[in-house]
Amino acid sequence: MRSGDTWKMKQWNKYLELIKFLKQKGLKVKIFKHKDNILDFVSDVNNCKVIVSGDTLAMHLGLGLKKKVVAIFGPTSSSEIFSYGRMKKIVSPISCQCCYKRRCNKRPNCMDMIDIGLVFNAILEILKN
What is the pTM of this model? Predict the structure, then answer.
């Protein structure tokens, strides 16, 4: 639900709505909290069946821990990340996607354009595999 201060543009503002849909489907949801110790964060990621995040540390850890991952891409390149057959990539449909900008004045911006239904369906699909 957050990203580091360097990449504010990686934040997707629809996580709370997504959580509501997932809970309605009877799925358990864990929101990662800030950890002072990286090993505690790794443990949190490792205890999940599916990781849903932007192009962030959680996504990279999830892939490294051989978890299923749904990753949301806006300002960064989805093609630079190998999926290992375990990741569904949701890529912003906006023409300036993958601009690598850390801040943006466009409204709606690339992350705003990502449809919650696409993310929700990707989670359901990856759970089936």
Answer: 0.91
